[in-house]
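This section describes the prediction task in plain terms. A model, or a person checking by hand, is given the sequence of a single protein chain and must write out its three-dimensional structure as a string of tokens. No templates, partner chains or ligands are provided. The sample shown here is typical of the held-out split.
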Amino acid sequence: MALTCILFIASLGTQWFGPVTVERTLPTTGNPFDSTANDVRVLFSRSTRHYERLAYFGQGKWHATLSAPEGGTYQAQFLINGKLAPGEPITVALRPAEDSEFVRLNGKRFRLTSGKSYVPFGHNLAWQYGGAPSYATQLADMAKAGLNWTRIWANRWDGKSPFLPQDQTKKLETGWMNEPAFERWDSIVNECEKNHIKFQFVLFHHGLFSTTTDPNWGEHPWNVANGGFLADPTDFFVNPRARKLTRDWLRYAVARWGHSPAIMAWELFNEVQWVDAVKKHPERIADVIAWHREMGDFVRSLDPYHHLVTSSSSEELSPKVFESMDYLQPHSYPPNLYAAILGAPIPKDKPSFFGEFGVHFETVDETVAKRALLDGFWAALLSAQAGPAQYWYWDEAYKYHLYDEYVREAKVLDRSGFAENPDAQPVSIEVTGGVPGDLTVTPGIGWGTTAKFIYNLPIDGATGSLPDLSSYIQSVGSHNRGLMREPIRLRFTAAKEGVARVVVGEASKAGGTLQLSLNGKEVVTNSWPAGSADHVVDQEFLVPYSKGSNELTIDNSGTDWFKLKAVTIPSIGSGVLAACISSSNYSLMRLQWLGGIGTQPKTLMIPGIGNGDYEMRQFNLKTGIEKDSSVVVVNGHISSYVPHSTDEGVALFRRK
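The expected answer:
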């Protein structure tokens, strides 16, 4: 008897019931994890309501879980390959759910199914280090600190991989799955639910199909060297059997844990840019793009709870890989963390936030780690991302007492108005009254297209970042010249003569030539020859300039790119780094008074903010102490502004 009367959930309401799980021993044959041979489902029925759920195999039985927007008593019937299974219907009762807040898209932000804004804020928790606190302990401590987000990997080394047992001496027959891993995942999902932390379920990681970056290909059971069927890791994305086994894993994940609102998203891949199909064979990037579209569509077709789907990368991978994802998850470990995150490109049609970030090749101690958290938090908010940047090094949370910093930042996030003002966008603000000093600016984009070529300093560099400038200065003869169609021009007016400093960090192994000109006259030329590897340069080049108006031009006449690290121009800085998002009735900014607060009167000029009375909330980012006051905005101008700290956040709320 085939049943065709099935109702799928089109949308989730705020009232929710369940979950409840039914189980039964069934007469299936062969591999129970093969969804083609054993397509087991359960039909839950109540009056005219019918919900079909995928079943999953575990501990010798078949199970299926239901959450639904309608409570009460249901009859559950198992189906095997579309036909009713032996046995009487199972009666279950759905009671009100403790948590029914699934994460949804809300333009370029997120919301919960209740309609409340959701701003993801936390740190990674990809695996449990040996001797480290358990998931239960650390998730509870995250919740106490006010955090609500994390990322967790399906990896072998702490027993969460579906295909690779933690004990490498144990082998699974191809297509069979690792049941102890699923029991570990049950515990993790339960702990996330208990602590109200949403997480990204990372289904694959790059090392599985890489021979160069964190390589695990040598231990993968699908490798022909281990008795598998893939001769090369690049074939993972196109081989029919690999794609079938991938779909079986995705189906299993949806069946066993898809009911959980703790899952923010299915993350298809961690840092797919490192797999051999991208790093060693970039001509096969089309395979990776097609795989993401196929698997994203497949998960969506299975998941009646409509979890989001994403995947992650460095900011340098082709954005076409992620066109089919619901939101973007760039990762970054840049030399200038604040500038890189602040200047990151933001998509026009979907949310984006950094799923990983960290300090780039620097000795890390408690001071450095807490500074990184602070910079990642503010840079992301003030570039209008969907949430703060998420720190990678979860092992440092206890070592460096990072939860003290997280408590302060969680309070700021709650009190800053960021969640309630999704229309606030980055603006360049003018701050006067600082102690004048040198201006240092850094490119805001890694590998990518430069969108702006003429910068008027100091106003365009008020944040310390040039957000539309790629750090890769492309050659006029390079096939990548389309990423930087013309030279970069920095315009400034100097009160006295000085010497600008231009720092180059790297140069392509194919060679590159730095050309620096001042007011149309070439001043510096430096070439790096072709070699076997990219050049580590870290060299400073000097450009003397005169009093008055100047234009410093940066170009490349060589074979390939060089990487611009920073430009410093003495004595033209306002003495404050200022970044801001604003709307007609709200502003949020961070002001860093580089030379101290000084004694001069301070003013703020904020484009686009409306006239009127405002509540001003100032956050001392060193102590966490708040200060509230009232100010008047006239033509975007606030006079007699008094800083609360040399590093402070400022929120302006228009009074009704």
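For orientation: DSSP finds nine helices and 38 strands in the chain.
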